[in-house]
């Protein structure tokens, strides 16, 4: 699985030290960046192996799929 996600932010987001673990989104699909909100499950369920999935600006819908080669 691979994906292109459009990001427009130009600044980092500070994550202050926490007492408990926090999960940072690595898939790019969270609606609560920089934190994981569980949307990575969408990628697992809907992105076929060997395809590059390109998402809309809301990171909710795949608008194009290409061969990932
Ligand atoms: S890793 Fe991106 S939403 Fe969980």
* Unreliable residue runs: none
The percent range for helix content is: 10-25%
| Main pleated-sheet profile | 3 strands, mixed
- Using only C-alpha atoms, the radius of gyration works out to 13 Å
Order of strands, widest sheet: 1-2-3
Classify the secondary structure makeup into a structural class. Answer: alpha+beta
- The span between the termini is 11 Å
Provide a concise account of the structure shown.
With 69 residues, this protein is α+β, with helices and mostly antiparallel strands. Helix content is 10%, strand content 20%.
What labels would you give this structure?
single chain; 69 residues; alpha+beta; three-stranded mixed β-sheet; 1 helix; 10% helix; binds FE2/S2 (inorganic) cluster
Explain this structure.
The protein has 69 residues and is of the alpha+beta class. It contains one helix and three strands, in the order βαββ. It has one helix spanning 40-46, and strands at 2-4, 51-55, 62-67. A three-stranded mixed sheet has the order 1-2-3, with no helix packed on it. The longest helix is centred in the middle third of the chain and has 7 residues, at 40-46. The protein is elongated and about 40 Å long. The mean pLDDT is 91. Bound molecules: FE2/S2 (inorganic) cluster. FE2/S2 (inorganic) cluster (FES) binds at residues 25-27, 29-30, 36-40.
């Amino acid at each position: 699985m691979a994906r292109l996600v459009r990001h427009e932010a130009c600044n980092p987001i500070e994550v202050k030290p926490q007492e408990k673990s926090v999960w940072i989104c690595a898939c790019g699909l969270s609606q609560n960046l920089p934190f994981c909100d569980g949307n990575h499950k969408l990628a697992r369920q809907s992105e076929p192996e060997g395809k590059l999935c390109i998402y809309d600006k809301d990171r909710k819908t795949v608008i194009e799929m290409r061969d990932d080669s």
